[in-house]
Amino acid sequence: SARLLTYAQRAENHHNPAAKALLETIGRKKSNLCVSVDVTKQADFLRIIDVVGPYICLVKTHVDVIEDFEFSMIDRLKELSAKHDFLIFEDRKFADIGNTVALQYSSGVYKISSWSHITNAHPIPGPGIITGLSSIGTPLGRGLILLAEMSSKGTLASGAYTSQAVQMARAHRDFVIGFIAMRRMDGVGAEGLDSTDLANEDFLILTPGVGLDAKGDSMGQQYRTPREVVLESGCDVIIVGRGIYGKGNDADIQAQAERYRKEGWAAYEERISV
Ligand code: BMP
């Protein structure tokens, strides 16, 4: 299973350009850390990314929370992505019918497909959401992440819903590169499927709800440590927001980014060494 392979080995075997690039970046930078930069001003957004850039494989954005948004911010983001060698993941959580999400992905103020290597969607509408997003993203070499589970208390994304999300992804492996999930999805919803085929599948598990200093927040977020997430649950990328950018001045933010990178990488090295 992919759980025991190195990121570099997985990059060699991957067919999707965004997944391949992400796995290569992780290996090259020795970082499975994705920073989620959920701030509301362009200047803060760009400054934080410039500080954490050397320590991350991926930046996760919620571009619609930026109050003074101008499209030139995207040009600056792309420059930082080249300067520091990371990919971009707009956490858009699409959740509509195929025709609508294709428009939301390609058009409007943000034109997400033009700059975000990876985006995500809720499986709730059924497979048409993948067809719609793929019609825009596949020609551009993008990758899609499905939300199979969530980190928040009381999430409805569990049990049969999670299994069906994985089944939807298996039917669209060219474009769906993995999941937002709290654990590896190997074998989930796989009853009766060919075992060699399943052994060859490589979905990336990107996991939010990661924090070293808090157990959660007052709105249902729940945190686990990088070690719990990567070593015990077999996830591939840790997503950290307030645990990094919420820590004060640039020196503190840099120190936290370095701390999470180290913890995430140590947990991975221990995982593949067994
Ligand atoms: P923080 O580390 O500050 O709690 O931020 C977590 C980030 O991950 C947020 O941007 C949130 O939107 C996102 N997220 C999450 O917390 N749980 C999920 O299940 C899915 C998410 O995208």
UniProtKB/TrEMBL annotation:
Chain sites annotated for binding substrate: D38, K60, S151, Q221, G241, R242
A Pfam cross-reference name: OMPdecase
Catalysed conversion reaction: orotidine 5'-phosphate + H(+) = UMP + CO2
InterPro entries xrefs: Aldolase_TIM, OMPdecase, OMPdecase_AS, OMPdeCOase_dom, RibuloseP-bd_barrel
Keywords: Decarboxylase, Lyase, Pyrimidine biosynthesis
Residue ranges of coiled coil: none
Location of the Orotidine 5'-phosphate decarboxylase domain: 32-257
Transmembrane segments: none
Gene Ontology biological process terms from the UniProt entry: 'de novo' pyrimidine nucleobase biosynthetic process; 'de novo' UMP biosynthetic process
Lineage top rank: taxon: Eukaryota
Pathway(s): Pyrimidine metabolism; UMP biosynthesis via de novo pathway; UMP from orotate: step 2/2
Active-site residues, as the UniProt record annotates them: D91 (for ompdecase activity), K93 (for ompdecase activity), D96 (for ompdecase activity)
Classification via SUPFAM superfamilies: Ribulose-phoshate binding barrel (SSF51366)
EC number: 4.1.1.23
Entry's Gene Ontology molecular function annotations: orotate phosphoribosyltransferase activity; orotidine-5'-phosphate decarboxylase activity
NCBIfam families assigned to the protein according to its UniProt record, in alphabetical order: pyrF
Recorded family membership: Belongs to the OMP decarboxylase family.
Protein name: Orotidine 5'-phosphate decarboxylase
Organism: Fibroporia radiculosa
